[in-house]
Amino acid sequence: MDREAELVRELELDDIIQEEDDAAGISAESIYIYKTPGQDVILPCGTASRSDSTCSIVTWFYSRDSSDTIAEVYKGNVEKTSSRAARLSLDSSCSLIINNITAEDTGLYTCRQKDDVNQELRVLTTSSSPPDADPKRDGDVTILCSLSSYNYVRCQRSNIRWVNETGAVLPGQRFRHNILRHFDCTSVLTVKRQSGHNRRYTCQFVDDQGKVRIKADYPPVFTRGKSDPGPTDSTDWPLSSVMLALRIGALILMTVITVLIIRYRCYKKPLDRDVIVRMSGDEVSYENVEPRPATTRLR
């Protein structure tokens, strides 16, 4: 692409982005999509045109906030200048695919085809403080759960919460709402870490109707040691012992059966023809007689 064509393209994009910014306050209602880091997400682009298999009339915009809009896909092609170009693609229906999402992918995505389709991606993350805490030591650790969003999101005790394995809400949670950074809604909880007691904590985001929209488990905060054998040691080891005992028992049984078969065959073996049977009273004795060569036999 020559310099003149590139300049025309940039001007077209600037005009489109300006229109997008001007219409931000009156655009169609957004669809909310909730994800956790590391997942993939597919953002539909409404009804794709069957005659446009290359998505040449499709442009995808991304707004990190209401004052910053960029084009991630222009006329069906991912912008090479995008910092996320390697993780973005379009499918056959012109839906935007984002691989291995992070909290930085939070924002408003708009597909412009015939009509604009707005979708807001919200990302729920969990972390600990300090992040480099020694997992082998007992003590207190602070775990954080944050929901990042493009627009204002209700952030109260009933909306974001930590629960235990039984689903009971854990006491002692603190809340903070950072409207300067993606409208982050964060729940902070300090828990006591104890070796050998691997507890799982789950963060939930609940909407105003009481529905859990997304949840994320905080991974174990310590490495298993001798006091906490874990699934491999506690379940696989007994199973291996049972299998070993069964194999030894089978080997012994086969040995006994083999010995009995050999003894049985010896017992059933017929006597040689040259056997002298001597009877003396109630006793019977057998005496094998070696066969004599034919030349020495009497005629």
Automatic annotation (TrEMBL):
Keywords: Membrane, Transmembrane, Transmembrane helix. It comes from Larimichthys crocea. The chain crosses the membrane at residues 244-264. This is Ig-like domain-containing protein. Residues 38-129 form the Ig-like domain. GO terms for molecular function: MHC class II protein binding; protein tyrosine kinase binding. SMART domains: IG. One of its GO terms (biological process) is positive regulation of ERK1 and ERK2 cascade. GO terms for cellular component: external side of plasma membrane; membrane raft.
